[in-house]
Specification:
heterodimer, A: alpha+beta, eight-stranded mixed beta sheet, 4 helices, 10 strands, about 20% helix, about 35% strand, B: alpha/beta, six-stranded mixed beta sheet, four-stranded parallel beta sheet, 20 helices
Amino acid sequence: MPRVLLTLRKGEEVKYLSHRDFVRAFEFAQRRARIPVAYSEGFNPRPRMSFGQATSLGATSDDERIVVDLTRPEPKIAEKLNRELPPGMKVLSSEVMPDGAKPLAGLTASEFRIKFCADPVALKQAVSELLAAKEVRAARIRDGRKKEIDIRPHILSAEVSDSEVTVSLSSEGAGPRDFVSALAEKVSGLIVEKVHRVRQYRNLDNSR
Amino acid sequence: MLQILDTILPRVTKPARYTGGEWNSVSKDHGSVGVKFALAFPDTYEIGMSNLGLRILYHILNKREDTVAERVFAPWVDMEAEMRQHGLSLFALESRRPVREFDILGFSLGYELSYTNVLNMLDLAGIPLRSAERSKSDPLVIAGGCCALNPEPMTPFIDAFVVGEGEEVIHEIVDAVKGSDRTTRLAALAKIPGVYVPSLYSVEYNPDGAVREVLGPKVQKRVVADLDAAEYPDRPVVPFIETVHDRATLEVMRGCTRGCRFCQAGMIYRPLRERSADALMRMAETICASTGYEEISLMSLSTADYRGIEDLVHSLIAKYEPEKIGISLPSIRADAPCVELAGEIQKVRKSGLTLAPEAGTQRLRDVINKNVTEEDLLSAVEAAFRLGWRRVKLYFMIGLPTETDEDVAAIADLSTKVAQVARQMRIRPTVGVSVSTFVPKPHTPFQWRAQDSLAEIERKQEILRRTVRSRDISLSWHDARTSRLEAVLSRGDRRLAEGIFTAWKSGCRFDAWDEHFDYNKWMDSLAEAGLDPAFYANRERPYDEVLPWDHIDCGVDKRYLEREDRAEGTTPDCRVQCAGCGLEVRGAACTLNTP
């Protein structure tokens, strides 16, 4: 059974879709495009697909990954899907996987580009303070309760260029929202203009 | 605008309600069209996007080269607060342009409890609430849908109502509006059959408060004669977020022949018109290909009554089962053959089976002309349990005309019998008994009847609570206070508009949502406007009283309605014998009895 890894863009037009709705939109497109997706067995067969780490609501991304099992090879899968995907969603690449491959396993980190509306000097200063600190507290609100966590171990790298920060975070520990909330403690009146996921990668060997 | 949205949207629930851009949505250059039409639905995106009428009009209007149609829904309370705080005016989803800049703002009015949302949307759009206060630069505000069959309570806020089906009249409206200004527009609209311009009518009242006369010509409901020939959305918008009806809709027919005396839809969508099976098969194909839906729903008021339903269902299953597309029947008649058909369709019994006996005793079912016997119902549930369903939901009403305490207690008896059918088959069932309060509706045989008082409804609910003993039964109610307000609004006259306005002013909106419905605030508002809710809801009206909606002609004869209300026994299905509702002698009309 051919297994294909797809890399998708989540653009401006669809950045307010939850991960679930993004997946739904993909499923509808796949049915319109008549992609020969394999189905699970049983009473209520479901398409055999799996999805990578969700991007947070409001963020764009150039690396949303979907793994699809097909009943037969479909060499034009990207082209066919791109004709049926709504504006803002696009298959950037497709790759046939070897048998039994689990291409989503081990993707433990993501690189983000976050554009701020802030004084570049203050921003640069704040980021280097974060990197120098032993501990970085970020506030999270879950079920109406405020909770603080230490995200310092999860900030893998961060660079500032003008008012843009490129930051790599380990996916399980911290999201861009945590990073922004920690930064906002240091820069007053910080406004986020855009959050974009550049890529996901395996943290251990630092390669995809 | 984009920047404001980027500030607001991350903070609100379900931001995709407000972004548009869905598959099959249509964006046009506003500079290249003559008429800009905003289709408004006064409830959330998820509810509005499930509305077939809205989808039909969106399709028809956007097919015209000279017109653009965009959608707008009621922003949820969190979004409303953000919009007001940031001074963001109500905008249409496709172009994000302010609704105020459109030529026509057309509301779909399907439920009286969305009236305050209409006012709220007008206010958010920066359009004067009252027709009389609008200027040349404001859009023309029109409304259609089943509430337009008694438009009176909303008349001050709506420039023109469209009575009946929209497929044809919508073209005439666009043509009339094109290139004319506000005053000439209204005059031109008034000439279109089915369009009601309330400012051209005046109402006089008797000293006792009832309407004496409505001055102005009668408005006749528009009816599409041939459904096969009617335009139908073959590329419906596919919402990103899950909606209430998340499936491809095939409207198999319009109208219903059963003649239930409480049912407004059964009266106002007459006469019965069926689509041909060929047309339906073609529609299914284009809709599935253009949307990617996994389920086709056969929609109508009583789909099992479609002639040739079994053949249609079998053809659809044969064609779509290999493609993993399921079929569903939303309304199931309470008899065994119908349940068996549903069982054949639904391979997975994920949802329960819903049946609507409506009343507990045969006597009361005869009064409301719901021609279902206890035997029908019990054989239907026997079939359901045999076919694998474990959950059965039964719909009942309390407060029906002539109802006694015995009738109420009989709801518990009948439900218990349903549970016993399962127990005898060694099945442990869940019987959901859902009890709503009867609301007398305009253009029905019960339009003259009084609704039970709240105290009486609560007393009857208590009887039910006492008599339901089986652990297999779970009892649930619709809030009786919601039904009371519905009864006030649905049979109201023009004076009620002040009450609606006052309620909106005092903060009422999303009244159809339990978490926002504030009955006391409504009652205070009605009192403040000098209105007595009991006058509208709880008063038996004499047959010779002029009803506020008498000038709206829905095609069904008032004498037929009175005959049905007075009837001692039951009236057969129109397919068996013509009941003489009036449509059989009308032009567009009923073809059931033509030889």
